[in-house]
Amino acid sequence: MYFLGNFIDTLDKIGEYDIKEKNKESRGIPMNINMIPAKDLDYYIGQKDFVIIDLRRKEEYEESHILSAVNIPYEEWEEQFPNLDYKKQYILYCERGGSSLLAAKELLKNGYRILSVIGGFQAYRGNKKTGNL
After folding, report:
1. Are 126 and 42 in contact (CB under 8 A)?
2. Residues β-bridged to residue 12
3. Inter-axis angle of helices 2-14 and 98-109, to 10 degrees?
4. What does the CA dihedral 13, 26, 36, 69 come to, rounded to 10 degrees?
5. Are 32 and 114 in contact (CB under 8 A)?
6. Catalytically active residues, by annotation
7. Using one digit for the tens of pLDDT, what is the confidence trace for 59-101?
8. What is the pLDDT of residues 110-125, one digit of tens each?
9. How far, in Å, are 3, 92, 111, 113 from residue 35 at the CA level?
């Protein structure tokens, strides 16, 4: 219940995020955030048209992360996301899902194709990489 409460609080803080507002647009881009369950990440690992981005701090990433994920700490997000390739689709995750929703909102405003992981790294039960390689 604690996790669900924090998740709902995070959604409230985002403001424009509303699952029911599928027709909201910015620059002609629908503003609904496509969410995927953490268990579905295994399907995307290693696929060339998808990039999995870990938004957690560098230390957390180095301790353990989802296979093939690249680390762009949320604190560096605003300066790094303009370097992303529009041809790719991005899958974002953070520790519990809140920061990835905020980053996803920013990407959508700028025309990127994104997915955000429900529950973040804490919800993922698949193969994790220990150490930064």
Report:
1. yes
2. none
3. 30
4. -90
5. no
6. 94
7. 999 999 999 999 999 999 889 888 899 899 999 999 998 999 9
8. 889 999 999 999 999 9
9. 17, 10, 17, 12
Give me the count of residues in the chain: 133
Rounded to the nearest 10°, the torsion over CA 56, 59, 60, 65 is: 90
Q: How far apart are CA 2 and CA 7, in angstroms?
A: 9
Does residue 90 contact residue 106 with C-beta atoms inside 8 Å?
no
- State how far the Cα of 129 lies from the Cα of 23, in Å rounded to an integer: 38
Distance of CA 107 to the CA centre of its chain: 10
pTM of the model: 0.74
44 pLDDT exceeds 60?
Answer: yes
